[in-house]
Predict the structure.
Amino acid sequence: VDSLTTMPSGAGKISCLNAVVLGEALASEVDELVFPSHHFSSQALVPSPQKYLEIYQRSIDDPAGFWSDIASQFYWKQKWPQPAVSENLDVREGHVYIEWFKGGITNISYNCLDRNVEAGLGDKVAIYWEGNDLGSDATLTYSQLLQRVCQLANYLKDVGVKKGDAVVIYLPMLMELPIAMLACARIGAVHSVVFAGFSAESLAQRIVDCKPKAVITCNAVKRGSKPIHLKDIVDAALTGSAQQGVSVDVCLTYENQSAMMRESTKWQEGRDVWWQDVVPKYPTTCDVEWVDAEDPLFLLYTSGSTGKPKGVLHTTGGYMVYTATTFKYAFDYKPSDVYWCTADCGWITGHSYVTYGPMLNGASVLVYEGAPNYPDSGRCWDIVDKYKVTIFYTAPTLVRSLMREGDQYVTRYSRKSLRVLGSVGEPINPSAWRWYFNVVGDSRCPISDTWWQTETGGFLITPLPGAWPQKPGSATFPFFGVQPVIVDEKGVEIEGECSGYLCIKGSWPGAFRTLYGDHERYETTYFKPFPGYYFSGDGCSRDKDGYHWLTGRVDDVINVSGHRIGTAEVESALVSHPQCAEAAVVGVEHEVKGQGIYAFVTLVEGVPYSEELRKSLVLAVRQQIGAFAAPDKIHWAPGLPKTRSGKIMRRILRKIASRQLDELGDTSTLADPSVVDQLIELADH
Ligand code: WTA
């Protein structure tokens, strides 16, 4: 304990953890601290704050050495020359760049599959697949997965996909989705998975941006009892992208018989190919394309504060080392675990913590195709019992929606196998945290509330289960090698108990390297707001014990059911409607979704507002982005509150949307203050 009190001052927030170690914090906040059981801690990878501080300190003092030691546990065809990291994060000193293990030659697919098979895990289950319909399931061992990946990789090579080419994947949670990702990685192709809830227009936009050699999809998927014709969406997207000058030669389509037979699928001869007709004919071995650690692995489009989605680019080596390590420690992974992350591979969570992180550790991963409440709200726990899931990782929105349905759906299942719970995507409110902890986890399982982003590749702030007491709703402390700082509006670091903007000092191996085709936007968005730091876009406060509390986005991005949506994207979808003149979208608190989408719309002169028009405005958003982005509320706005220079004052709109009408603040600077009264009057129109 003595050594902890002599922590270097650079680790200010970490030394706060000492208070917990020393028991100082306990007197006042005993209700808030949830301690891991002795049983859990004694078997944990990181059993105490002391151990964490020891490892953390080394990771900060010598990042290159620290990460090199971990990286050495993977297979490298050729080791990276020293040093392991080279970077500039300060825009004032030139262009921003981050390189980890550059010059090292490896392959992430090889490390996920071949390496594990060679280590004797060939017969271990890699994927437990649970279909939407009760009773439909399948498994693949690591050897079988490797063979499937090789067959697809051979097919892709055969149709001309080469190292560096993009491949768009638009698939639901079939086993074929991770297979497709791993097959691309095996041949050095850059996958871009598009969540299969995105509309044809959004898919087309992404295809136009990354110009893939092939698109991989399936004919349909069942969500609940309803089939959704994904192939029709892809057809429309490919027509759309061709009109914008980007045509794709190959559309590999998996026949998902549980949802739709091939006879009813629309087909374009020459371009469309049934997966089942071609892929199984290829050899089950395929040479690996060895790539540089800094060669791109994937592109994933995400929302920002302008209408155009950003192509977040991750490279191979650092991402590999980082996702594997964060997975292992944040979930206290043991080889006997059965791990289930409910995220879709269409989002970053599915990339890092369905596919890469777990498989790099040789874990058994459960992939569930369907909706978590189908056929009823007990489905998740039914699955947990069926597969003896030990680590369950989901989003607060699901926790809240299941909490609403009542404990009986949970308690009728055993859930004895559960050991660790996880949360991601948005802040988890303390009451949902407690329900998750007490009811789902029977007060036995630590909750890893993992804070991170598409851009960060892996967890940055997260509990390590068993290592220290938790506070419901706090993501707690930084992962190894991560230096979070909280800054004020001027970019000045604030120490101790405070709140402000969350930035990160220095790089970590899993950081994204650029926005595809727009390095300038990368620098402007992330490195210019607070020079010298990576700016996360999130607000954060730190309490007197050094725990971090994420408070949500501070930019024009909202988090709806853990899905990241740019308000500008929704606005541009609304104004594409011929009868909509202007739109302003804000987030409002939503009991289940975390945030809901609240849209103020001004109609074209003379058009009356009606229920029918409201529906068609919502439809415009569904068609342009996807159903998950549909506004919860359309508020008719004959006028919007604007400053004299024409800027919409969103602050006022947020207050109106949340009905905090006594907190509107100063409206005198508006060009026409009377619009505010008008909006209030129309609030429940
Ligand atoms: C939010 C998802 C609080 C945050 C991995 C971030 C969280 C955005 C948490 C990134 C958490 C994610 N606590 N907020 N544990 N995890 N967020 O890119 O606002 O889809 O900036 O990545 O989600 O969303 P993204």
In short: The pocket of WTA is lined by residues 302, 347-349, 423-427, 449-454, 475, 536-538, 550, 552-553, 559, 564 (CB under 6 Å). Confidence is low (pLDDT under 50) at residues 1-16, 18-30. The chain is about 30% helix and 20% strand.
